[in-house]
């Protein structure tokens, strides 16, 4: 008993202290590269650390004070997430090789005298993290002294309210600075300009309101997300800016930003602002230009700075989702000749008209020459001008989910291409046939009533999502023309019955989602396809046609079947699934019914005999009984007839 208890105590001790104690007590002869002492409930730094350590992790402990460490080879020290509030003056003096110091999530806004002295002695530091320490402007200024070799600095989640040009005076080599999650509302001129190596600056989640004069030529990646920025303006100069990524999302922008003319901007994030709130595109453009001139020259607007700068931009992606556009800013966006993807979801377009300024009386045709991916989800869109569709020269992916778009039948467009009736916002449908390059179309949840014949003729769609168009009626030939190209088709949540689902022979189809309908049989045309994944959940299937499943099984990899009421005893198809090793991920949730009960398919499969043989027996008994009863009734009837005939004969004799 005692021995048993003892061995358990030893085991417990080993589990708690084992690796850590062995490291300290028996340092290996090869020399310790690193020691992980994180999460060890330490309240002080162990005294007998191996002097050859290169890396030491003391994170997630309860260390409050730090005294002299003598680890002359140490390159990395992680003290994050402790309760450190006192670092004695000389604590770091002997860490001459230290390159990375992580002090995040401590309480270093105390004892500034000793702490800052200690930090100032680390003159070779390359990477410093002092996030989450409640640091004031003053504290940070002290902590950053004597840091000429610092390359990366993280100060997320402190209490900075302003940044002065003195802050980085002694750390001019910085390449990456993160000061997100502070309370900064003011940045003094000349703060970042002298940091010639600065590439990435994150000022997200602060209180910045206006960017009046952006001048940071050196920066590649600027993050101003989640401030209160109302406008962003850069004064025109003839220098090149290295800017590639600009994040202005979650601000209060009313206008597009005026970006420096000579830039390398590729990604512009403007989601969750108020751009477009000023009715028309023309109003917005003229307002932002007057703002520019007021700020820069103190004079009224004369030039279209916005457009002349946008024209030269090599932007690839712009996110304008969650803004306030009621009309599509065609004349601004078409200037972006490299634009490949545009997210315009969650605005309030309702219609896309071809409202562009006319030159010499004719409506111009403009083209989005590079646009491949356009997201127009959730805009209440009902009408899209054919001219707009024509402008989508290279479009491959179009997301129209959650709008009110009714696709036209193929003929609508061709019969009368020039007909003025086509521009009827209320009644008109959208003819996708114009989009010859289109590959992926999402028409989910558009209240589509009828999917007309050959609605997509002219496109070469690879994937089509028609889900959630409840009660949509599909014309027999709706998908005609997509036979050779369509690979993925989603027609779930339509409440469609088998008699209303007819699919053409689609040779390329390999994914089919027909879940959440009222289907009880698979369309015969599936035999043409080599479907690999099929989702049949939540329908009214009772069984599957054996030969059909057999045909499908040659290609089928995955099949979802739960939410149907299968007949347990009509289960030949199951043996095919079993034999061919088709994956049925939801088999354990699948139920089946017998005459007497409803049970899990798995349950049934454990003892199939007991359920269905019972049923057969009962059936036989019932059949037997019925026969006996029928014979009995027959006999009685015969007797009655014979008897009544006798009576009749007798009666007739009487007459
Ligand atoms: C510092 O440690 C925290 C975890 O406590 C981590 O999230 C952060 O990335 C580390 N900083 C650096 C510069 O490695
Ligand atoms: C620690 O550094 C101080 C000052 O640089 C030096 O005098 C002292 O000898 C060093 N101690 C060790 C153990 O290296
Ligand atoms: C450092 O801390 C010690 C002990 O608390 C104190 O005596 C000393 O004045 C402090 N030094 C500075 C520069 O604040
Ligand atoms: C600044 O770093 C140098 C070494 O580069 C060192 O000699 C000096 O003492 C440090 N200054 C302070 C105030 O610690
Ligand atoms: C900008 O910062 C926010 C908040 O920290 C972050 O969510 C976002 O991903 C960053 N943007 C970019 C483009 O890195
Ligand atoms: C478009 O924006 C929405 C909402 O911000 C987002 O959910 C979606 O991922 C974005 N899509 C693309 C392709 O960027
Ligand atoms: C479209 O319908 C709305 C009301 O449903 C009506 O106010 C508007 O005048 C109609 N527009 C056209 C061009 O028919
Ligand atoms: C099929 O569509 C439903 C929504 O109707 C969805 O929940 C399910 O995940 C889809 N199936 C597959 C395999 O993606
Ligand atoms: C689906 O159709 C059936 C029969 O027409 C109807 O009873 C049911 O309410 C419909 N379900 C939905 C969600 O519309
Ligand atoms: C099937 O229907 C159930 C109940 O209505 C629902 O919880 C489940 O998400 C549906 N499954 C799919 C794949 O949509
Ligand atoms: C099963 O499907 C085949 C074609 O795959 C068809 O010829 C046969 O009639 C179907 N059987 C039943 C009972 O529907
Ligand atoms: C499924 O196949 C395994 C052998 O691969 C067999 O043991 C099992 O009985 C089969 N189950 C059914 C329901 O056919």
TrEMBL record:
Identify one Pfam family in the record.
LRR_8
Q: Which residues form the signal peptide?
A: 1-25
Alphabetically ordered keywords of this record: Leucine-rich repeat, Membrane, Repeat, Signal, Transmembrane, Transmembrane helix
Q: Which GO terms describe its cellular component?
A: extracellular space
TM annotation in the entry = 621-643
Which spans of this chain does the record mark as coiled coil?
none
Q: What SMART domains does the record point to?
A: LRR_TYP
Q: Which InterPro entries match?
A: Leu-rich_rpt, Leu-rich_rpt_typical-subtyp, LRR_dom_sf, SLRP
PROSITE patterns referenced in this protein's UniProt entry, alphabetically? LRR
PANTHER family found in the cross-reference section: AGAP008170-PA (PTHR45712), INSULIN-LIKE GROWTH FACTOR-BINDING PROTEIN COMPLEX ACID LABILE SUBUNIT (PTHR45712:SF22)
What is the protein name for this chain?
Answer: Transforming growth factor beta activator LRRC32-like
């Amino acid at each position: 008993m005692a021995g048993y208890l003892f061995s358990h105590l030893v085991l417990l001790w080993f589990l708690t202290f084992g690796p850590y104690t062995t490291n300290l007590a028996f340092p290996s002869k090869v020399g310790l590269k690193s020691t992980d002492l994180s999460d060890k409930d330490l309240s002080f730094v162990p005294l007998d650390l191996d002097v050859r350590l290169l890396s030491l992790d003391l994170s997630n402990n309860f260390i409050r004070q730090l005294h002299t460490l003598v680890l002359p080879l140490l390159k990395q020290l992680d003290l994050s997430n402790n309760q450190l509030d006192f670092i004695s003056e000389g604590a770091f003096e002997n860490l001459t090789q230290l390159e990375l110091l992580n002090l995040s999530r401590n309480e270093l806004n105390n004892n500034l005298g000793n702490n800052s002295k200690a930090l100032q002695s680390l003159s070779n530091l390359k990477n410093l993290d002092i996030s989450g320490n409640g640091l004031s402007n003053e504290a940070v200024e002290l902590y950053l002294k004597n840091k000429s070799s610092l390359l990366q600095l993280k100060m997320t989640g402190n209490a900075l309210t302003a940044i002065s040009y003195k802050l980085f005076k002694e750390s001019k080599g910085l390449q990456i600075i993160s000061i997100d999650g502070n309370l900064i509302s003011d940045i003094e001129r000349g703060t970042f300009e002298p940091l010639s190596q600065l590439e990435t600056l994150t000022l997200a989640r602060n209180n910045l309101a206006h960017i009046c004069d952006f001048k940071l030529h050196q920066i590649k990646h600027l993050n101003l997300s989640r401030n209160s920025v109302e406008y962003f303006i850069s004064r025109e100069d003839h220098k090149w800016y290295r800017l590639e990524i600009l994040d202005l999302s979650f601000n209060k922008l009313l206008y597009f930003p005026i970006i420096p003319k000579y830039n390398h901007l590729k990604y512009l994030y403007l989601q969750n602002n108020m751009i477009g709130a000023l009715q028309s595109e023309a109003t917005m453009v003229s307002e932002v230009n007057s703002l520019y001139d007021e700020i820069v020259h103190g004079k009224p607007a004369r030039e279209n700075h916005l457009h002349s700068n946008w024209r030269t931009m090599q932007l690839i992606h712009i996110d304008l989702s969650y803004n306030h556009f009621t009309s599509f800013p065609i004349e601004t966006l078409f200037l972006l000749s490299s634009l490949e993807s545009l997210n315009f979801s969650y605005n309030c377009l309702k219609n896309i008209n071809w409202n562009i300024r006319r030159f010499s009386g004719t409506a111009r045709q403009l083209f989005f020459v590079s646009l491949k991916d356009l997201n127009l989800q959730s805009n209440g869109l009902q009408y899209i001008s054919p001219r707009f569709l024509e402008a989508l020269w290279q479009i491959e992916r179009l997301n129209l989910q959650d709008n009110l778009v009714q696709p036209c039948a193929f003929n609508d467009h061709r019969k009368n291409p020039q007909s003025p009736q086509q521009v009827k916002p209320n009644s008109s449908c959208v003819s996708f046939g114009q989009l010859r390059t289109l590959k992926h179309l999402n028409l989910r949840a558009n209240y589509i009533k009828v999917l007309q014949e050959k609605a997509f003729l002219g496109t070469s769609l690879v994937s089509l999502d028609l889900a959630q168009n409840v009660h949509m009626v599909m014309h027999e030939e709706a998908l005609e023309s997509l036979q050779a190209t369509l690979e993925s088709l989603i027609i779930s949540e339509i409440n469609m019955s088998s008699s209303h689902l007819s699919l053409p022979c689609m040779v390329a189809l390999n994914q089919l989602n027909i879940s959440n309908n009222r289907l009880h049989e698979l369309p015969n045309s599936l035999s043409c396809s080599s479907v690999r994944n099929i989702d049949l959940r939540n329908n009214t299937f009772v069984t599957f046609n054996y030969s059909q499943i057999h045909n499908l099984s040659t290609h089928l990899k995955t099949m979802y079947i739960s939410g149907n009421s299968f007949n347990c005893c009509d289960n030949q198809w199951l043996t095919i699934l079993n034999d061919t090793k088709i994956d049925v991920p939801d088999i354990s949730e699948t139920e089946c019914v017998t005459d007497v009960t409803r049970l899990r398919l798995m349950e049934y499969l454990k003892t199939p005999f007991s359920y269905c043989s019972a049923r057969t027996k009962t059936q036989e008994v019932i059949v037997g009984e019925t026969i006996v009863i029928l014979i009995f009734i027959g006999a009685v009837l015969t007797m009655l007839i014979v008897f009544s005939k006798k009576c009749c004969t007798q009666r007739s004799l009487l007459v």
